[in-house]
């Protein structure tokens, strides 16, 4: 099973590119988790992806946020949001089961520099997500958590730690909030397989950062320990990020392969 996380930065702007990319890969993705779709549910291009064999579960929002899980197998027990009126004003979480595996797709808040409302919202959102895991799941369950976490976990996950020290996504408080999620019982699959490899998933549009590889690793695929024996590989596919036309997202897709046979 190939599970992919991809912040598309608008499904409308990126639909053609995503479909081209899937065809380029011979449509080998089994579970495609999208973030920042930026459309309400009824405006999602269901038919385009259904034609490629996907069942689509969408929790969208006009102009901002929005998440979706596209799966070759039908999803069961689909949940949208935290079930909390305040936190669900922003559409940032969707989950579902594929056989005995729960897939949780998140788009964590971007945040801001210390002191602002967005800064505290991001840290509080992480606390809410940890509470959500505690209330609904166990580390003994088979769980895959994917998404744009908007945090670079360690200095190896940014191209220039000195230059970016204190920048959004690298602050100690953000990293601690993310690490609390890992301590609950989740493993960073890429770092588990490649402890010393530097690989980014996001590059600024400005100044051709992708061509100089001046990026950050902020998109992750996490899993619980029961799934580790099945984990075979994690890759970042640069093909769609390096397109000039149609205009790419500023993120690249991350794909984990689990051999569940």
Write a concise keyword list for the protein shown above.
6-stranded mixed β-sheet; alpha+beta; globular; Deoxyribonuclease I, Chain A; 6 helices; 261 residues
Judged by helices, strands and strand pairing, the structural class is alpha+beta
Assembly of the depicted chains: single chain
Q: What does the largest sheet look like? A: 6 strands, mixed
Low-confidence stretches: none
Average pLDDT figure: 97
Determine the CATH topology.
Deoxyribonuclease I, Chain A
CATH architecture: 4-Layer Sandwich
- Helical fraction equals 10-25%
Instruction: Count up the helices.
Output: 6
**Count of spatially separate domains:** 1
Short précis:
The protein is built from six helices and 14 strands.
Explain the overall architecture.
The chain is of the alpha+beta class and 261 residues long. It is built from six helices and 14 strands. It has a single domain, classed as Endonuclease/exonuclease/phosphatase (Deoxyribonuclease I, Chain A). Helices cover 24% and strands 26% of the residues. The strands form three sheets. Strands 3-4-2-1-14-13 form a six-stranded mixed beta sheet. Strands 5-6-7-8-12-9 form a six-stranded mixed beta sheet. The model has no long low-confidence stretch (mean pLDDT 97).
């Amino acid at each position: 099973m190939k599970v992919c996380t991809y912040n598309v930065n608008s499904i409308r702007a990126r639909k053609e590119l995503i479909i081209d990319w899937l065809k380029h890969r011979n449509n080998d993705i089994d579970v495609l988790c999208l973030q920042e779709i930026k459309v309400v549910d009824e405006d999602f291009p269901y038919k385009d992806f259904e034609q490629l064999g996907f069942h689509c579960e969408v929790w969208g929002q006009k102009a901002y946020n929005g998440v979706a899980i596209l799966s070759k197998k039908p999803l069961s027990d689909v949940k949208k949001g935290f079930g909390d009126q305040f936190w669900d004003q922003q559409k940032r979480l969707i989950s579902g089961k594929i056989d005995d595996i729960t897939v949780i797709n998140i788009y964590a808040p971007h945040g801001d520099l210390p002191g602002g409302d967005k800064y505290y919202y991001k840290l509080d959102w992480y606390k809410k997500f940890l509470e959500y895991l505690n209330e609904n799941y166990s580390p003994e369950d088979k769980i895959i958590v994917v998404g744009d976490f908007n945090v670079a976990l360690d200095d190896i996950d940014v191209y220039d730690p000195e230059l970016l020290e204190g920048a959004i996504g690298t602050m100690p408080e953000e990293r601690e909030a993310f690490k609390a999620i890992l301590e609950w019982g989740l493993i960073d699959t890429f770092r588990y397989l490649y402890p010393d490899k530097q690989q980014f998933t996001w590059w600024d549009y400005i100044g051709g950062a992708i061509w100089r590889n001046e990026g950050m690793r902020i998109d992750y695929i996490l899993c619980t320990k029961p799934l580790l024996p099945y984990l075979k590989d994690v890759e970042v596919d640069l093909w769609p990020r390096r397109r000039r036309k149609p205009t790419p997202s500023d993120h690249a897709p991350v794909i984990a392969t689990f051999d569940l046979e």
